[in-house]
Design brief:
mainly alpha, about 675 residues, 3 domains, Formate dehydrogenase/DMSO reductase fold
Length: about 675
């Protein structure tokens, strides 16, 4: 065992000890392992009380290491190849030797992640049933309750995805495959934490989104730092590049963790006094202090250790990163203890509607309340901020280097973002889960209006112009990844007009006329996924139809108009079908949230169908207008191009073959001369 490997094992042992110490202290101080056993109630035993948080902590740490190893292979280390080689094998991008080693390490980490998740599943069933873990393992309870418990189903999904990552990582050799495994591991992070306190919190809509954002930011931050520190300890190549890339990512992870963590604390502890007076609040306060310490570590890295890395002093980074990793591990231990500690109950018992919606029944609907009763949705608020920040930042970069960007495109993008805010943050979002008609209006805007403006903003073209090429030849930076995605086989398939139309049209019928709709309405994440699908399906269709950004294929303008007029009637048919239904959709959900001031559920559904039927006229008019303008401008560009060719041909000596118009006139002249010659021959 060499010196670098030994230092890695020492740092890992220190991080594990820090996590264990913080976990034990948090469990004891939070009271989750010292609760009195009430006679007559089931007791899972001390093994479960300690084993469940220990296995969950191991699952969190191993998941972060899996994500960090895949992140290092896919993004932090430069890609080899990718240049102009003599043959396809030389020019194809491939993982470097170190990156391939990290993918192999990710396979082992993912296998451990799956094992820890399986152990967590067993302990969770024992904890819920109040049975000792040995009874659960030897009896039939495990197989009986896994599918019926949300936590059990979530952990089974984690186990399956982690096993798939572990197996596929064995054969992964390309950057695209490593990136795909990274995406799969990122998805596997979410099910377990989203079925905890966040799903049952009073403000569960905000809490659920906050937890998802929190976990998605913590894993690459913690895992990425651990892998970069190991890379430094082993003194491998490309450390300054790797550390500099990680530092940029870590800054955004720090911001996301801070914002999401604050949102989660406010959702569970609306009164600041509870930070001091409750066990949950005190643990949350300790986590906030640890987070502040990590912020100081990050500042020190950016200002002190990165310059020393550039001066070829890797040990300075290694020692500091080892301490920071231990603090991160301790923070994750505190987080597990916090998850095992019950938050303080609400001061007032919530109504059945509040339990389902996360807020009380609003007053009777009217236009003023649709505009003024704002309903904060964290997911779409973050989405709008990110999309707006990236777009306007790219525009400023272009203008900063003297390049122009059409104001109309910026206005179109802004209108798209405003339309998202109008239906996800206002009273529309508050009434949409209660009234099908309002939900349908929200759906139509996100599916048929917002995407038009976003597509007209030409975000892909802007990104390709604003992003700088990778500094290292053959490497893949954001610009190269975007280009690779645009030329990928997947995008080629989904952007085919037939495929995009099927997704845009028939997903309507597949969602609303199956049990999927009610399932999505009952689950906040399902509701978010439904609205994101509306937005993405509309963006895909109008991207193909309007063709502002680069795409694998371009339809001629007559074909675009034909596609539009063939597609839009299906939305009218959908609206007519809703109006003619004799039974309400998602009846169980709408009976549970039926407002006392509303009309009948079936009548409201018929109103929603009428909205779907009539709304299609608005995007049709906008798209026809845009296509007409595009067609006219394209003809003008073609005419100017022909004029320029004619001018160049005249200046170069009048060679007809250099000018399409001159060549066309020459062909006409030859035909006329041929006709005259034939006429003279017949007369003679």
């Amino acid at each position: 065992m060499n010196r670098g490997t030994l230092s890695i094992w020492r740092a890992a042992a220190a991080a594990a000890a820090a996590a264990a110490a913080a976990l034990v202290a948090g469990l004891v101080l939070g009271g989750s392992v010292t609760e009195k056993v009430i006679p007559g109630l089931g007791d899972p035993g001390a093994l479960t009380r300690w084993g469940l948080p220990a296995s969950r902590a191991a699952m969190n740490l191993l998941s972060a290491l899996t994500v960090g190893a895949l992140l290092a292979a896919a993004a932090l280390l430069p890609v080899e190849g990718g240049g102009r080689g003599r043959n396809a094998r030389d020019s194809a991008p491939r993982l470097s030797k170190d990156a391939a080693g990290y993918v192999a390490a990710a396979s082992w980490f993912a296998a451990g992640w799956a094992a820890a998740a399986a152990a967590t599943l067993v302990f969770t069933v024992a904890d819920v049933l109040g049975e000792p873990v040995q009874n659960v393992v030897t009896g039939s309870e495990l197989s009986s309750y896994v599918g019926s418990l949300p936590q059990g189903t979530a952990l089974m999904i984690v186990v399956l995805l982690a096993v798939v990552v572990a197996l596929l990582a064995r054969t992964t050799t390309t950057p695209a495959a490593a990136f795909g495994l990274l995406a799969m591991a990122g998805i596997a992070l979410l099910p377990a934490p989203l079925t905890g306190h966040s799903a049952s919190a009073a403000n569960h809509a905000i809490a659920t989104t906050g937890v998802a954002l929190h976990v998605a930011a913590v894993a690459p931050w913690v895992g990425g730092l651990a892998v970069v520190a190991a890379h430094a300890a082993l003194r491998r190549d490309k450390l300054p590049v790797m550390a500099e890339r990680f530092s940029r990512m870590a800054l955004w992870c720090f911001v996301a963790v801070g914002v999401s963590g604050m949102v989660n604390v406010i959702a569970r502890l609306p009164d600041p006094v509870e930070l001091i007076e409750t066990n949950y609040g005190r643990l949350a306060l300790a986590k906030i202090i640890a987070f502040a310490a990590l912020g100081w570590f990050g500042w020190w890295h950016r200002t002190r250790t990165l310059p020393r890395l550039a001066a070829r002093e890797p040990l300075a980074f290694t020692r500091f990163a080892a301490v920071e990793t231990a603090v991160m591990a301790a923070t994750m231990g505190l987080a597990v203890a916090l998850a095992r500690t019950a938050p303080p109950p609400p001061s007032e018992p919530g109504s059945a509607v509040r339990v389902l919606l996360g807020y009380d029944m609003p007053p009777e609907i009217n236009p003023v309340r649709l505009l003024t009763l704002w309903q904060f949705d964290l997911f779409f608020a973050v989405l709008v901020v990110v999309l707006g920040g990236l777009y306007y930042g790219a525009v400023l970069r272009l203008r900063g280097r003297g390049d122009a960007w059409p104001v109309g495109r910026t206005v179109a993008w802004t209108l798209g973002l405003v339309s998202i805010v109008a239906v996800t943050q206002t009273g529309v979002a508050k009434y949409a889960p209660i009234l099908f008609s309002v939900h349908m209006a929200q759906h139509m805007v996100l599916n048929m209006l917002t995407p038009i403006f976003l597509v007209m903003g030409a975000p892909v073209t802007l990104a390709l112009r604003a992003l700088r090429p990778a500094r290292i030849r053959g490497d893949r930076g954001p610009r190269e990844w975007l280009t690779a995605v645009l030329h990928s086989r997947y995008v080629t398939v989904v952007s085919h007009p037939a495929v995009a139309t099927i997704i845009f049209v028939f997903s309507l019928f597949a969602l609303y006329f199956t049990p999927l709709f009610e399932a999505a309405m009952r689950n906040h994440l399902g509701h978010i996924a439904m609205m994101v699908h509306f937005l993405a399906a509309g963006a895909l269709f109008f991207w193909v139809l309007l063709g502002v950004d680069p795409a694998p294929r371009k339809l001629p303008y007559p074909g675009r108009l034909l596609l539009l007029f063939v597609t839009m009637p299906f939305h009218a048919f959908f609206g007519i079908a809703l109006m003619n239904l004799s039974e309400a959709l998602a009846l169980g959900w709408y009976n549970a949230v039926d407002p006392p001031w509303g009309t009948t559920i079936l009548h409201d559904q018929q109103t929603g169908g009428a909205i779907a039927w009539a709304f299609g006229e608005v995007p049709t008019f906008i798209v026809v207008t845009v296509l007409a303008v595009q067609w006219y401008l394209d003809d003008q560009r073609q005419a100017r191009r022909q004029d320029r060719k004619a001018d160049r041909a005249a200046k170069s000596g009048g060679r007809p073959e250099d000018d399409e118009l001159a060549a066309y006139n020459a062909r006409l002249a030859k035909l006329a001369e041929h006709d005259r010659a034939e006429g003279q021959g017949r007369r003679t």
